[in-house]
Design a protein that fits this description.
Length: 114
C-alpha cells in the first residue's frame, strides 16, 4: 500500500497554535488558581504528544530535511545549521519530563487526573 504523507498545515494554523500558547501565557500571568492551571498544563506537557515532544520532533525532522536537500558537498555553514536544529530538538525533547512534575503537583493539590 503506498504511503501518503499528511497534508502540510497552513501557516495560519501554525500561527493559531502559537497564538493559543501566547493566550495561555497571558492567562498564567494573571495568577489563576493552580487547580485551574493544572488541567491546561497536562496536555501542554504530555509525555507523548505535548509541546516539548512535538516541537523536538519538528526540529529534528527539519534538521533531516536540511541534510537531505543540501547541496553537495555540504558546507560548514549547513553543518552548523543542522547541528543547531539537532541540539535544539534534543533540548526541547528533554523538557518532556515536566509531565511528571505536573503529575506530582496534581497529587500534592488533590487535583483530578486527566
Amino acid at each position: 500500500m503506498p504511503h501518503h504523507a499528511p497534508d502540510a498545515p497552513a501557516p495560519d494554523q501554525i500561527r493559531e497554535a502559537t497564538s493559543t500558547l501566547a493566550g495561555l501565557a497571558a492567562y498564567l500571568r494573571t495568577h489563576p488558581p493552580l487547580d485551574d492551571v493544572l488541567p491546561l498544563l497536562a496536555p501542554l506537557l504530555d509525555e507523548d504528544d505535548g509541546v516539548p515532544m512535538l516541537l523536538g520532533d519538528a526540529l529534528r525532522c527539519t534538521e533531516h530535511l536540511i541534510g537531505q536537500q543540501a547541496a553537495y558537498p555540504v558546507s560548514d555553514e549547513t553543518r552548523l545549521l543542522m547541528k543547531a536544529f539537532r541540539e535544539a530538538a534534543q533540548e526541547f525533547t528533554d523538557w518532556h519530563i515536566l509531565h511528571w512534575d505536573v503529575q506530582r503537583l496534581r497529587t500534592q493539590t488533590g487535583a483530578p487526573g486527566r
